[in-house]
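Quick one:
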Amino acid sequence: ELTMNKLKTIGASALCGTLAAVSAQAGEMTVSGSANVTYTTKENVVTGAPLGITTGMTFSGSGELDNGNAVAVNIVHDDQNAFSSADVSVDVAGIGKITVDQGGGTGLDRLDDKTPTAWEEPYDAGLGTKIVTATGVGASTDIELALSGDLTPEGMSVYLSYAPEAGAGSLNDKSIEGVDNRHTGRGYDIVIEHSGMADGLNVFAGISNIDDETGGNDRSQKVLGFTFAAGPVTVGAQTLRDELGSDTVAFDYYDNMAYGVSFLVNDNLSISYGEREVEHVNTGSANVTEDITGYAVAYTMGSAKITLQTNDTANNGGTAGTDDKATELALMLTF
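Output:
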């Protein structure tokens, strides 16, 4: 039986082939889907056709090895069924979860923006702000170890990620990267999250370093932030320093400061407000500060969500004097 909610396959050989031919028990595969319809308007530009739609499917498989270790695979097809990301993982008892990931959000990328919001980030309503967020090696093909809870204090999660070529794309098996990404070599990320310090409080920090193979300055990213939930209110803030290193970019480094607050009115309705201040620093000329604010309202009805979001930005994209505003009405369905 094949439905959008569940696609079952019994066949250890498929999982075994994916996971280096290790022996596994019979597994299960499920599929989930989503569709997002938007109506977007912008000020200071010609809106043109305001209607848009995106769809996605995620295939998730799980099984168990003879020794009891869990194995899993996830394959994401975003927007009109184009391949987006995939990961294969093995849980090793007493050590942790080892994941080989292609662009699924491991490493520092898991901290790109954790401030609370009712819907999307204040910069994500079609403005094209070119805001720089934390990515690290998680934006490429990398290997991540999520340490077992047996090795860390209660409430703490530790992630260690490594990419042999941080600028490489998503490769098939038995393939190698054929392009010399001269400014992006091997890299590593270290991420720590702690939710055991106080009720409702989650603090997080991460660092990333990516080699510049030309012998120049390496790219370095540092993230620090928190979220705190008390009843229906959640607040959060985080910083990012991104020292770009490479001589192929327009700025030397970025300093980001993000704030957000969300309020759960009831089980169905939530509202939020967020700010982003992005300083584009160029030692050879004047710095530019990009300011972004956003409001969002979301109403959930079972598998459907209706949202309204308005975003404003000053000095958009680091260009002084460029001010833009966008409003987005969206309907999202999940299956």
